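G., the chain you wanted modeled:
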Amino acid sequence: MARVTLLTDFGTADGYVGAMKGVIASIFPGAILDDVSHEVPFGAVGAGALALARYWNRYPPGTVHLVVVDPGVGTARRALAVEADRRLIVAPDNGIVSRVLDAADEFRSVSIENPGFLPDERSATFHGRDIFAPIAACLARGVHLSRFGPEIADPVYLPEPGVSWESEAIVGEVVSTDGFGNLVTNLPGASVDEASGVEIRGQKIPVVRTYGDLPPASLAALVNSDGRVEVAARDSSAAELLNADVGTRVRIPK
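Predicted structure as tokens:
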């Protein structure tokens, strides 16, 4: 049975997720629908890209991932249908598939342009319901990617900030804050091998193996499940304790 996952920044209070699910169920009643999250920060394409990267290839081949974090809805930005390593993704062309592009061995995408798969009347403000949900349902039913529009070679790509060296230290920055208040950086986990500590917001904090190695409400750096350096606080929010957010500089002396 085909499976469709949903990732959005809609929240669950207003019926927007239900509208998309209703469209999918009407087109393909047999689809299995998995809610990954509807709590991506509003309009945060980079955070959505990282969230998608954590699960897209954990699902079996043939899974359809419906991703709607779309601050450019109704503008000239394209709508994408993507095949990556035998998984399918439907999303706005705003860079939210960038981390999938980084990881996939095989990747092809089309611009969704065939009106035959879309409702005659489409809202300029709710493409999740009127464009992405119908295409996700059709993909789940087995409609081939090529039927939705022309293949494109240049989906929008959002590179992560670069890591640099200065004064015998490697320097990166926070690229996402998760729901626990952990500060996820662009620094690879190997950056803290044999490091004496990590510097952030004027503080030098230790490196530990896991959250349980910390006293409550104390800060440390560790290698997270994505293989990245993360700044965390046990039973508390590192983001709040440090007043830090995306873009905050992180320095690892060597």
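The longest strand covers residues 169-177.

Shout if anything looks off.
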